[in-house]
Amino acid sequence: MGEILIKSIGAFIAIYGFGAVLHVPKRFLVWAGADGALGWFVYLTAEVLTGENMLISTFLGAVAISVCGHFLARYFKTPVTMFVIPANLTLVPGAGMYRIVYYTLYSEKELSSYYFQQTLQAAGVIAAAIFLVNILLGNYMSGAKNRKEKKC
Amino acid sequence: MDYKLLFDTAVYAGELLMKNGAETYRVEDTMYRILKKSNLKTVQVLVMMTGFVATLDDPSIDSLTVVRRITSRGTNLDMIDRVNMISRKFCSDQMTLEETFRQMKTLWKETRPYHKNFLAMTAITGGFAIMFGGSVMEVFGASVAGFLSSIVLLLCRRKNIHMFLENILCSAVLAMVIGLFADYLMGGADRDLMIVSAIMPFVPGAAITNAVFDTLHGDYLSGLARAAEAFVIAAAVAVGIGIGIYLI
């Protein structure tokens, strides 16, 4: 448990820095970092609970990030991407993409296709999570918005 | 209403959003909403990752059409937020068209000097090393590599080096730094963990997330284009790491 908390704090620091690089406005930086930390916390916890099932953990982490991002975006009246792009860096298989190309360069076909598969799965799972949350929350929220300000 | 001015405002907004890395659907949506304020019959906006076309037509006016090619793309979420705020105010009638146009133009003209983000880069790489469960030494190694690569990045931006080469140079430097660290300064440090943490700022995370967003909104062309962009960036990083490891 303690280890998970320390790793989540690491995620917070990383996403805070990444937010600064992507020019997230200062008032949102802490929230973006918190969103990332939450996602990583959920991911790690799910990993322990499901016995290292990478796909389910990634899915749950991405759902947590998206839900949190949606509510933050609604609260601050700003695009969701403000929180979700930095925060998703914790889960997005960037390292996997690097590994695919790296092992291809060294003609290690098995490793490269293993990582290819893993990266595609992780990206697909994240996409599914974002999709699901967007449909469930996005529709509900834009419905509420339309009722308030019909014109725009 | 001055349709020409409205059209220019929408084009400014669209171009600003695209250059700063907004999703395709957000650009389309923002431009559409601004143009819709004219209450004209035909409003069409087609946005693709590399440019956009917008047209405004009505029996009462000559039709207006504009094509813009977008060549440079970065990620600046602050700009997206500000454009979003301006267009939100305009669309809910809190701001006149002239005022909106003026504000868009100031945003447009604003020079954006390259941000010196040494500290942020150090925080990213160090933070990721903690995230992946690295030891104190590994976190330190990753942070140092991140810091040095941010200096290389700054030099590359100053010299206007092409993005592909920039990624190769930065990742080659960080691979060399980490290779030196792992081989000479501390035995037993996990080189793979440090490299994976240190490349995180360069890895195409934002491109992948945007690709997903675009695909989900039905912008398949832009989604695929962004996925291709992600692969190109990843290839540059991998080549750089390969060179770095080879040199050490």
Features:
heterodimer, A: 152 residues, mainly alpha, 6 helices, 0% strand, globular, disordered C terminus, B: 248 residues, 3-stranded antiparallel β-sheet, 67% helix, 10% strand, elongated
- Classify the secondary structure makeup of chain A into a structural class: mainly alpha
Subunit arrangement of the protein: heterodimer
Q: How many DSSP helices of chain A? A: 6
Following the backbone from N to C, one meets helices and strands of chain B in this order, namely: HHEEEHHHHHHHH
Which whole number gives the mean pLDDT of chain A?
84
User: How many strands in all of chain B?
Assistant: 3
- Main sheet overview of chain A: none
Report the β-strand fraction of chain B as a percent range.
5-15%
Termini separation of chain A comes to: 47 Å
Gyration radius from CA atoms of chain B, angstroms: 22 Å
Low-pLDDT residue spans of chain B: none
Helix fraction of chain B, binned, reads 55-70%
Largest sheet of chain B: 3 strands, antiparallel
User: What is the terminal separation of chain B in angstroms?
Assistant: 66 Å
How do the helices and strands follow one another from N- to C-terminus of chain A?
A: HHHHHH
Name the beta content range of chain A. under 5%
For the biggest β-sheet of chain B, the strand order reads 1-2-3
Please report the total strand number of chain A as a whole number: 0
